[in-house]
């Protein structure tokens, strides 16, 4: 309801009350006197409620000033506050509810000379009673209207400092934003603690790189991921190989060579060492010796039927 509507409702209520009193007392003068007394009582109650016995809402802190010097006097928390209206007055209200503020840090320069943009959000609470005494007069005037701007300036300044210490590659890595959030939260808590602000959570929602830089970083990250995968595969292979003896490894290498050459149409004899170590031999499983190999027959001489020539 607007102020004009409140005034109209109040005036209409007074006229209705005056008419009711006039009808009951049958005297216009007496009705006016009763109306005047009621107005005085209502007026005194309004003055006390507004300027003397003032109510401060929940999750609010009132800023009290000296009426003559306009200087800051004190903070007053939730509840009733007694004031001397000719000396003190409430000059502002600071919300102590949990607040959420968003901001953008533009043109933050990395250590390798790349400009980035970071979108962030912070949630926290102003606690005026914990403000350092030397900062209270200034912050009492700033917080009721410029609290969010104060937050944005400090967070952007701290974020730029952290970005200046890191390269674009470090910021692009997985998990970089989480580490940056923890460091930024600790720095903001340390910086704003004298100002009475407590950070509950800060989030780096997005880090925006120039398009050409982002493509290069994505390609580099893909190569790094592939290299790490190859290294892990090699480590697993080495771990597996370490379970075999040197003799087993040499035998496997030789078998692989024979297999590769057989695919190219090359026939090779299996060395006797492999035959001796073959587990399918009878002397290894049945206890009986394998029959000796048959003697190799010499092929017939193709010139045996020729007549001998004697000189």
> What is the radius of gyration computed over CA atoms, rounded to a whole number of angstroms?
47 Å
Fourth CATH level, the homologous superfamily of the domain at 99-209: Band 7 domain
Tell me the CATH architecture of the domain at 99-209: 2-Layer Sandwich
Number of alpha- plus pi-helical segments: 9
CATH topology of the domain at 99-209: Tetrahydropterin Synthase, Chain A
Helix and strand sequence: HHEEEEEEEHHHEHHHH
Spatial order of strands in the largest sheet: 3-2-5
Work out the number of β strands.
Answer: 8
Overall shape: rod-shaped
User: Share of helix among residues?
Assistant: 40-55%
How does the major sheet shape up? 3 strands, antiparallel
Derived from helix and strand composition plus strand pairing, the structural class reads alpha+beta
CATH class of the domain at 99-209: Alpha Beta
How would you state the average pLDDT, rounded?
76
Which quaternary structure do these chains form?
Answer: single chain
Poorly predicted runs of 5 or more residues: 274-278, 280-289, 301-311
- Give the amount of beta strand, in percent: 15-25%
Distance between the termini: 145 Å
């Amino acid at each position: 309801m607007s102020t004009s509507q409140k005034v109209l409702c109040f005036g209409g209520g007074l006229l209705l009350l005056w008419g009711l009193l006039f009808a009951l007392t049958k005297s216009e003068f007496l009705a006016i006197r009763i109306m005047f007394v009621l107005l005085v009582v209502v007026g005194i109650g309004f003055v006390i409620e507004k300027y003397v016995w003032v109510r401060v809402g929940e999750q609010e802190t009132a800023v009290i000033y000296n009426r003559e010097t306009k200087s800051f006097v004190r903070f007053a928390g939730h509840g009733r506050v007694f004031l001397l209206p000719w000396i003190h007055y409430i000059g502002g209200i600071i919300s102590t509810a949990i607040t959420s503020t968003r901001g953008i840090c533009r043109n933050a320069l990395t250590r390798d000379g790349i400009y980035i943009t970071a979108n962030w959000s912070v949630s926290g609470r102003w606690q005026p009673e914990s403000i350092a005494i030397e900062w209270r007069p200034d912050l009492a005037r700033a917080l009721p209207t410029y609290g969010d701007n104060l937050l944005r300036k400090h967070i952007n300044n701290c974020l730029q400092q952290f970005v200046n210490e890191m390269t674009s590659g470090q910021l692009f890595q997985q998990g970089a934003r989480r580490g940056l959030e923890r460091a930024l939260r600790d720095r903001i808590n340390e910086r704003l603690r004298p100002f009475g602000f407590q950070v509950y959570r800060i989030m780096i929602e997005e880090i925006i790189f120039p398009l050409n830089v982002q493509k290069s970083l994505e390609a580099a990250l893909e190569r790094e991921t592939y290299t790490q995968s190859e290294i892990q595969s090699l480590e697993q292979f080495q771990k597996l190989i370490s379970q075999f003896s040197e003799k087993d490894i040499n035998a496997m290498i030789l078998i692989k060579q024979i297999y590769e050459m057989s695919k190219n149409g090359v026939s090779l004899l299996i060395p006797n060492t492999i035959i001796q170590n073959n587990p399918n031999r009878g002397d290894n499983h049945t206890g009986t010796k394998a029959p000796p190999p048959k003697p190799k027959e010499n092929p017939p001489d193709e010139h045996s039927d020729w007549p001998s020539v004697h000189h």
